[in-house]
Write a structure and sequence with these properties.
It is built from 15 helices and eight strands. By secondary structure, it is α/β, with parallel strands linked by helices. The chain folds into two domains: about 230 residues, Rossmann fold, CATH 3.40.50.1400; about 130 residues, Rossmann fold, CATH 3.40.50.1400. The strands form two sheets. Strands 2-1-3-4 form a four-stranded parallel beta sheet, with helices on both faces. A four-stranded parallel beta sheet has the order 6-5-7-8, sandwiched between helices. It is globular. Pathway: Porphyrin-containing compound metabolism; protoheme biosynthesis; protoheme from protoporphyrin-IX: step 1/1.
């Protein structure tokens, strides 16, 4: 999943304009105002035509043969790995070079990523609950859109149209990110891709005030780092893992929350990911009444540039060196198993620790019924709220220079659905 994307230095290519006269300076100022503008978030209601629930995620190759295409798409994404003018040249070279190594990793976890299986299961089960607790927006139809693996965003969108959404028929769809903590490189990239295919397949003109154009009305669940159901699901999994340690040692087990790292160049641009990761950790520890000592660390860092730290594997090694061998790893940024949990944490971090009996990992959320119910509760809250997206989603990073990001945010913040059920 994300590890292959973020295990390379991020190139920051910037152009600084030198105004030679008043008019270029004015244009520059106007452009900066557009970059920093915060669109108004419009209320959303709907006609009773059913609701498409679309899970957004990065995805992963289901077979070894899909690894090459997965990496090619991943390294072509400038939102995730900005290589500037060299993107089209370096992306294919990097993906081709890394394919054999990544294929071996997927082979070691069974020949492919289970993320599609879990994403489809989670979405289907959530929709079943939604049909019961939110009949006014039923039926709820499950869809999955991956950024770099099948089913791709384009495939999902064409299926929506084939299933009777859009094409003059209107209908409501909810883009539900499966990254609880927002980052421009994950949820942001997925929303940019969704906006791109909306423009290509439904036209560049936005929905009219009376809905006469019949396009799909989108709303977005763009972040949910402290949702009570998410916190409860994590907390229960941690309690179950702590119960495996002898009672006399249990309270001294160190909880190591592990999240995917980001290059500091992305963080310094203003990406909210570190704060939202910290918010999840704090909420989980409050639910646990701070029963154990804990730290937040980051995995998947590669390359010479500074990244968010400390690194997960280094943290485990240093604690063991200090004599602290009772450690529980919690993959706090992921909602299912994939290469980062099954290979990186289980086989690299724990497998190479020398203490697999005392260094353990909590179960991933996967098909956890507490988590599935949390997804349904969160979706119902969103459907009832009438919001097109969170107010936070309409704000761009202070250092953002992407016009595509500006257009995408403006589109999703401006979505409206006609009143009436």
């Amino acid at each position: 999943m994300a590890s292959m994307a973020l295990r390379l230095p991020t190139a920051q290519l910037c152009k600084t304009a030198r105004p030679s006269s008043f008019r270029p300076s004015l244009r520059c100022a106007q452009q900066q105002m557009r970059w920093l503008a915060t669109p108004t978030v419009h209320p959303v209601t709907q006609k009773n035509t059913g609701t498409a629930m679309v899970f957004l995620n990065m995805g992963g190759p289901s077979t070894l043969d899909e690894v090459g295409d997965f990496l090619s798409r991943l390294f072509a994404d400038a939102d995730l790995i900005p290589l500037g003018r060299l993107q089209n040249y370096l992306g294919p070279l990097i993906s081709k070079r890394r394919t054999p190594k990544i294929q071996k990793q997927y082979d070691a976890i069974g020949g492919g990523s289970p993320i599609r299986k879990w994403s489809e299961y989670q979405c289907e089960e959530m929709c079943k609950i939604l049909d019961q607790i939110s009949p006014e927006t039923a039926p709820h139809k499950p869809y999955v859109a991956f950024r770099y693996a099948n089913p791709l965003t384009e495939e999902m969108y064409r299926k929506l149209l084939a299933d009777g959404f859009g094409n003059g028929k209107g209908g409501r769809a909810v883009a539900f990110t499966q990254y609880p903590q927002y980052s421009c490189s994950t949820t942001g990239s997925s929303l940019n891709e969704l906006w791109k295919w909306r423009q290509r397949l439904e036209g560049k003109a936005g929905p009219t005030e009376d809905g006469s154009d019949g396009t799909i009305r989108w709303s977005v669940i763009d972040r949910w780092p402290t949702h009570p159901g998410l916190v409860e699901a994590f907390a229960r999994n941690i309690e179950e893992k702590l119960a495996e340690y002898p009672e006399q040692r249990r309270k001294d087990v160190v909880l190591l929350f592990s999240a995917h790292s980001l290059p500091m160049s992305v963080v310094n641009r203003g990406d909210p990911y570190p704060q939202e990761i910290g918010a999840t950790v704090q909420a989980v520890m409050q639910r646990l009444n701070f029963s154990n000592p804990y730290r937040l660390c980051y995995q998947s860092q590669v390359g010479p540039q500074p990244w968010l730290g400390p690194q997960t594997q280094t943290s485990v090694e240093e604690y063991i060196h200090k004599g602290q061998k009772d450690l529980v790893l919690i993959p706090i940024a992921f909602t299912s198993d994939h290469i980062e949990t099954l290979y990186e944490l289980d086989q690299e971090v724990i497998g190479e620790s020398g203490h697999p009996d005392t260094v353990k990992r909590v179960e991933s959320l996967n098909g956890n019924p507490v988590f599935i119910k949390a997804l349904a509760d969160l979706a119902k809250e969103h459907l009832d709220s009438g919001l097109a997206c969170s107010h936070q989603n309409s704000l761009r990073c202070p250092g953002c220079k992407s016009e595509r990001c500006a257009a995408s945010k403006k589109f999703f913040a401006g979505q409206e659905i006609l009143p009436g059920h």
